[in-house]
Design brief:
With 753 residues, this protein is of the alpha+beta class. It is built from 27 helices and 27 strands.
Length: 753
């Protein structure tokens, strides 16, 4: 079973490396091939299983992509019918939810959409069937080194478009039957009751998350605490929580069952406890909406229960392999979700690191060794997925796991159960859980703020990942095997790898893909400069945290020499705080010093110049008299290196361009121009473009942005000058290191359009 499951997984993974989706004819070819191979020689089961895995993933991917929003329908009024399929989340810009469609513009279409509705007068409930008038656009995520691929996540979820609801009379509730989304209705009702009876506090959102699995709206600062301490798995309903509650139920029910002889004669206490444990696991998993970790936990518990009922012994690896196989059959694209790897990887590590060993029976073996195994074993996965691993993870988890498992989760579930008959009593229990969590949160926060709490690293290729995983396997071999510590040698590439750096006199430049906004990074041999930080889109999401910081970690950055915030608009300055919280910054330059409380901030005034590693930097604008002109006060920075020169212009418009022509015309010539104001028609004065004479112009724009940047007339001006044009929508991050590289093209997969 183990060989079959791993080979099946290998076939699924193989499809994910394709830049295009093979046609459906390959499904039948592979089905015929795998069947023939198996019939002719059963010893070639691994080859047959790999072919089946590829075939199944291919069929599933075609099923998920069977409907695609056409370009002609993007941004147009569409009438859709369907039902709300997720708990609506009230956010800054309205209610967000997933919508399962049945009809789009009169045609039968079954797919999922992510919708936003700015309507304060309607309280939506999961399961309601609605007719909406919407504007939709395709799923299009930012693409950057170290960043999250939302398009892959959307494919796994079956999500095919984003959009917003137009407030029109045609919007109407069609039906509200209890059997539509009945489970999620219970979850939403429970979530709302908890929020009603639990006062808002620093940790109250986590109480809701531990009961219902709903974590949307939690700010990035809280997630950073969990990442830095390696405890982010504790604040979501996962296999650990399921295991704790199932074990607790098994012990309690078994103990009670044995006290009643009549029951014991009819059904052994072991079977009764196993059934009760499974029911608890299913109940708790249902509250989490059956996420990947809870599915895995339930599958493994179900297998163990069935084998118990059949009076058969079952090996741990067999249980793990069967759960893996079933999971891949349910949704092979779950391999695109990080939870899949963390969930199955953690359990595999525990089985490998604990089973088939002599058990001394002491506390270290029962508790400490598991922490050691998981802490060491997940280092490669953590670096691969998150570009960091927590050094304080062992200490943090040793404190937090028993605290959460034995105290916090039981209190949360008890409080939730008490809501059925007494909201007042439930409120007291939930408040007790919240106060309890507040103490734990204080400890985790303190640990996360230690300067050495996390190690940031990047994995340059899959070979380093494979070597590190092999090193973990060798290190966790039972004591007594020769060469055990040789595993350290296999892990050394993970820690000794340092990203390449520019040569003396060279500057590497990256225009990051931050949607509708701007952020660029200039790297010299020993220095780093960040120009603008992208937008802050909500309390829980900003481009500084999700794009700029991960990219800087891929460069091996430990600090920044300068952060330039060209002006105060959110799409240029919104992510600055996230950057400042992650990296020590030697100097901050901006045209809006009043918008930051940092002590090392000063104006980016014309004439200021410096040299880093043979690369020349100079602010060409603004002067002290041009500091209160909004867009036309944007910092303008010229970077001159041996390989290329770059002109970063922020959001300057015609006034600033004319000023530069009048005062700095001899310094404007540059190889690469970052288009002023994202290519707005309020910029790009003819004389200014002729003075810059760029070989390339880069547009930092968002997909189908509401401003329609870059403007068609501006594009035509560059065409007339025969200037090469690139935009972040089609190129993703645009990288000069030193040769030009377009990240969306070089890292394309079949789900990236």
């Amino acid at each position: 079973m183990q060989s079959f499951s791993l080979a099946f997984l290998l076939g699924v993974l193989l499809l994910q490396q394709f830049t295009f989706l093979p046609t459906t004819k390959w499904i039948w070819i592979l089905l015929f091939f795998s069947t023939t191979v198996f019939i002719l020689n059963k010893r070639l089961l691994i080859i047959s299983a790999s072919a089946l895995g590829f075939m199944w993933a291919l069929w599933f991917a075609h099923h998920q992509t069977s409907w695609t929003l056409s370009h002609e329908l993007e941004g147009k009024d569409l009438i859709i019918r369907g039902y709300i399929s997720s708990i609506p989340d009230s956010a800054q810009f309205g209610q967000n939810f997933l919508f399962a469609t049945r009809i789009i513009n009169g045609a039968r279409v079954k797919t999922f959409l992510h919708l936003t509705w700015q309507n304060k007068f309607v309280h939506l409930h999961v399961g309601e069937e609605w007719q909406f008038t919407v504007h939709l656009k395709k799923i299009h995520s930012t693409m950057n080194p170290g960043g999250f691929d939302y398009e892959a996540f959307a494919l796994y979820q079956g999500l095919r478009a984003n959009g917003y609801i137009i407030n029109k009379a045609k919007n109407k509730l069609l039906s509200n039957h209890w059997y539509h989304g009945s489970l999620d209705r219970i979850r939403q009702n429970l979530k709302e009751k908890i929020e009603k009876n639990l006062p808002l506090s620093n940790t109250s959102q986590w109480i809701t998350a531990l009961v219902t699995g709903e974590r949307r709206g939690i700010n990035q600062e809280k997630w950073r605490v969990l990442r830095n301490t390696g405890t982010n798995h504790l604040m979501a309903i996962a296999g650990l929580h399921i295991g704790f509650m199932a074990a607790f139920t098994f012990i309690v029910v078994g103990w009670c069952w044995r006290r009643i002889p009549t029951l014991t004669i009819k059904i052994p206490s072991q079977i009764a406890g196993s059934v009760a444990a499974l029911l608890m696991a299913l109940t708790y998993s249902s509250l989490a909406g059956f996420s990947i970790p809870t599915q895995r936990a339930c599958l493994m518990l179900s297998i163990i229960l069935v084998m118990t009922l059949l009076r058969r012994n079952i090996f741990s690896w067999y249980t793990w392999s069967l759960a893996l196989c079933i999971m891949l059959l349910l949704n092979p694209l779950s391999v695109l979700n990080e939870s899949f790897w963390l969930s199955f990887g953690s359990v595999a590590l525990i089985i490998y690191g604990v089973s088939a060993r002599l058990n001394p029976g002491n506390l270290w073996w029962k508790w400490g060794r598991i922490q050691w195994v998981i802490g060491l074993g997940l280092i490669p996965f953590s670096v691969w997925l998150f570009h960091q691993f927590s050094i304080v993870s062992f200490v943090a988890n040793s404190i937090a796991i028993p605290w959460v498992g034995f105290l916090l989760v039981p209190l949360c579930l008890l409080g939730s159960f008490t809501l059925i008959f007494s909201e007042k009593m439930a409120g007291i229990i939930l408040l007790l859980a919240d106060k309890n969590l507040d103490v734990l949160w204080g400890i985790l926060t303190w640990l996360s703020q230690l300067s050495w709490a996390s190690w940031y690293q990047t994995i340059p290729n899959h070979w380093v990942l494979i070597a590190a995983c092999l090193g973990v396997v060798i290190l966790l071999i039972p004591v007594g095997f020769p060469g055990r510590w040789f595993g350290i040698m296999w892990m050394l590439p993970l820690f000794l790898y340092h990203p390449a750096k520019p040569k003396l006199g060279e500057a590497w430049f990256t225009l990051l893909d931050v949607g509708q906004g701007l952020s660029a990074v200039v790297q010299t041999q020993q220095h780093l400069l960040v120009f603008d930080s992208g937008a802050k889109l909500s309390v829980s999401f900003d481009m500084g945290e999700s794009v700029v910081v991960p990219f800087l970690h891929t460069l091996g950055a430990k600090n920044l020499d300068m952060l330039v915030i060209s002006h105060g608009d959110n799409d240029h300055s919104g992510g600055a705080l996230a950057i400042l919280e992650q990296f020590p910054v030697a100097a901050i330059k901006t045209s809006v010093t009043e918008k930051t409380s940092q002590k090392n901030v000063s104006y980016c005034l014309r004439g200021e110049k410096w040299i880093w590693d043979g690369v020349y930097f100079e602010f060409l604008y603004p002067s002290p008299t041009e500091l209160n002109l909004d867009n036309d006060s944007s910092c303008v920075l010229k970077v001159t290196a041996k390989n290329k020169s770059f002109l970063l212009t922020g959001d300057i418009e015609k006034y600033a361009e004319k000023y530069l022509l009048a005062n700095e015309v001899d310094k404007l010539a540059s190889d690469v121009l970052i288009a002023p104001h994202h290519g707005s028609k309020t910029s790009a004065v003819d004389g200014f473009l002729q003075a810059v004479k760029p070989q390339m112009v880069l547009f930092a724009v968002g997909y189908r942005n509401r401003y329609h940047f870059p403007n068609r007339l501006v594009i035509e001006k560059y065409n007339m000058m025969h200037v090469k044009q690139y935009d972040s929508v089609h190129a993703g991050a645009i990288i000069f290191s030193p040769e030009l590289s377009l990240y969306r093209q070089s890292h394309s997969h079949y789900w990236n359009e």
